[in-house]
Amino acid sequence: MSMPDTVLEAELPVINRLGLHARAAAKVVSVACRHEVSIVLRCNGREVEARNMMGVLTLAAAKGSKVGVRVEGEQAREALDELTDLFARRFDEGE
Q: Would the pTM of this model clear 0.90, i.e. be above it?
């Protein structure tokens, strides 16, 4: 009997100066693609799959906004922890 998928949700603040621009979005997509999970991001009334670079960019998540994250799958905890850390590190932009 297989275990049911884990579903986790969080709200991550965008704290880097440039917001969720191309380089930052590419890092989010990279995390999503590294894990066996489904990640849905929500911001500004939009909802997109985190593996979709153009979708992530259309969120237009500026500094100060919050991005809702829903992760589903066996590696949900690992993926959410990695995304939380990425947002907290300002996408490694060293500002």
A: yes
Q: Which range of residues forms the domain containing residue 75?
A: 40-95
Q: Which of 21, 42, 51, 77 is catalytic?
A: 21
8 found inside a domain: no
Q: What is the pLDDT of residues 9-41, one digit of tens each?
A: 999 999 999 999 999 999 999 999 999 999 999
Tally of structural domains, the chain: 1
Q: Is 72 among the domain residues?
A: yes
Q: Does 35 participate in catalysis according to the annotation?
A: no
**How would DSSP label each residue in 18-37?**
T-S-HHHHHHHHHHHHHSSS
